[in-house]
Amino acid sequence: MLFLQKPISFLRRPVFTLFFLLWIGVSYSQPRKYCTLPHLLVNKIKAEHFSPPPIDEKFDDRVIEEFVELIDPDGLYFLDSDVDEIKALPLYLHDPAKGNSCEFIDVVAKIYQKRLTDAIRIVSLKTAKPFDYSKKDSLYFSNKQISEHETSVNDWERRWEIWLKASTLSRMAQTAKGMTVKDWMAVEKVSREKERDKMLAKLNRLLRSSVSSQEFVANALLKSIALSFDPHTNFFTQNEIKDFESSLSSAAYSFGFDLNENALGETIVERLAPGGPAWNSHLVNKGDAIVSVTWPNGEVLNSLDFDDNELEEKINSADKLSGTFTFKKADGTSVDVLLQKEKRESIETNVQSLLLKGEKSIGYISLPGFYSDWGGEGQSCANDVAKEIVKLKKENIQGLILDLRFNGGGSIQEAIELAGIFIDVGPMALSKSKDGQIISLKDIHKGFAYDGPLIILMNGFSASASEITTAALQDYNRAIVVGSTSFGKATAQSVFPVIHEKDTLGFVKITLSKAYRITGKSHQQKGVQPDIYLPDFYSILQISERTNRHSLPSDSVIKKVYYTPLTKVAMDPLKRLSGERLANSSWFKHLSDFQKFFQAPQSLEINAYIQHHLASQEHVKQLDQTEKASAKPLYRVMQNKFDGALLGLDENRNQTSQELLKEIERSAYIEEAFQIILNHLSLTKP
Length: 686
What we know:
Blueprint: E1 2-5, H1 19-22, H2 37-48, H3 57-71, H4 80-88, H5 102-126, E2 138-142, H6 153-175, H7 181-186, H8 188-207, H9 213-227, E3 234-236, H10 238-247, E4 251-254, E5 257-261, E6 267-272, H11 277-281, E7 289-294, E8 300-302, H12 308-316, E9 322-328, E10 334-340, E11 342-345, E12 352-358, E13 361-366, H13 381-393, E14 399-403, H14 412-420, E15 426-433, E16 438-443, E17 454-458, H15 465-475, E18 480-483, E19 491-500, E20 503-516, E21 532-533, H16 571-583, H17 586-599, E22 602-603, H18 606-625, E23 635-638, H19 641-647, H20 651-665, H21 668-684
Parallel strand pairs: 1-2, 13-14, 14-17, 17-18, 18-21
Antiparallel strand pairs: 2-22, 3-20, 4-11, 5-6, 7-8, 7-9, 9-10, 12-13, 12-23, 15-16, 15-20, 19-20
Helix pairs in contact: 2-9, 3-9, 5-6, 5-8, 5-9, 6-8, 13-14, 14-15, 16-21, 17-18
């Protein structure tokens, strides 16, 4: 049975989730400078970090463990004996007087090159003929934090065989015309060869990169050092810091399309952003397949060398501002299109509001992230939320749902200001720095934008700043928190340059402080607990701060703060009524069934695989058909009058807005939040 590692959380590695596949190198002016840079990085982080671990031999071991996990998360490249050899190498981070990291980097680079060469041989060998689909192989997702590596070459080759077999079956499922073994075997050869070509292209790209293996290993080591302090301390190359800054902004440079992979394995245009560069070219259509991209420096990206996610990461890199795209059209012809990125406000990631018009008029605001404008133009998500509230209040709303699900955080100051929109004045959180000083983070602006019934929706991907806002409003009894336990990140970071002899060789994001609730308690590792729980499919992945390696522990502080909480809402009747609805909800029952199905091992024997594929489609179909928890719609989802008038004049924005509207119409979670507000209004009416 093959264990598939659980997906790396975007909260854990925000920029380099695909680092191993998409690595962007740093050219060092001195060839061996990377030998001493690890010591510079350790000293810089140690000097600034909130709670650095002892820099001793155990720390060296921790770094090596993180290093192996970073470059081989699925155990496909190293044997167990390789890992033992790497762990035995001297790193000297704890004692630079004894030496630098050159030996470690050189030896690991040679092992890495050899294993990539071996992997190319194995992939070619294993895909030369059809797999044995009668074998009782299986795989399932594992929540183990450390990858397992095979002890023998035979077991290693077998691991590759299962991996490639699973990938081939997945592609067969996309291309087969029917659901019989005969239908699937008819596309086996082309599916297997496409998986072979993709994997060989990836391995050859890694082996023959313009960046030396030593530099590759050196940068992986730098990232591992940072992650060994805590999961949110990260090292960035010059290009990666641009991507990081862009991810925190409400607007970004974009070519204006999203990519996906079709049944033939081609990377295609899944969606055009209305009004974007690709849209305005009038030469790009949905379904066009990307053949290649040529950058101004002559570098060519061949789409066959990447899957859709990898190619999209490359194309969206902040240093790529223009390129000539070769698209294959539906009729088989090709067209070259020169596209220039444009800075566009991301409608999908910015604040948006809608009106839920039913028995009562309830406002809905979506805030996917606490964006900040690094360009200094002064855009604030807290101000944007306040503007949306003004629009909704003109519709005479009687309650408000603030959706912070999948909100990974951002600026703490934005979190404090957002909480202040709903609270008159007072402390919102506490912050403790490296020297032990505890300060109160206050909303200094007297007054509020909205004082009516408020629900906050959150889930396990609500993190950091969104947790600070939610915890503050919960402590003030200002909001009813609905959903599942949040991520559990209560630390704050800042970015510093890593400088050597006046050269900036990279940047490091370092954890400088911890955040606490105004009660002195911390949501670090624990997360913010909802007042009313709703099941969350993603909870089975167990992605949280608590499961992150080297995460800082949860603790509490004592500091006198003065605040006046509102009268606590009588939660028991609301919980009871919500629980009764969930117990009778076919959608939440299907969700529970799908969770159990997803966690079960998946057989790679072809008959069993086909049945599993059919069952998976049926689960998705049932969830889609019963998306709304109630048979009769409780409300109509509408634009507020102000936005409705503007969108009528802007076809591009209107199309994007309609997509959100349809999504909200079908959401069982938002419907349940709507029901909870109705119950609250009913129970508290004079």
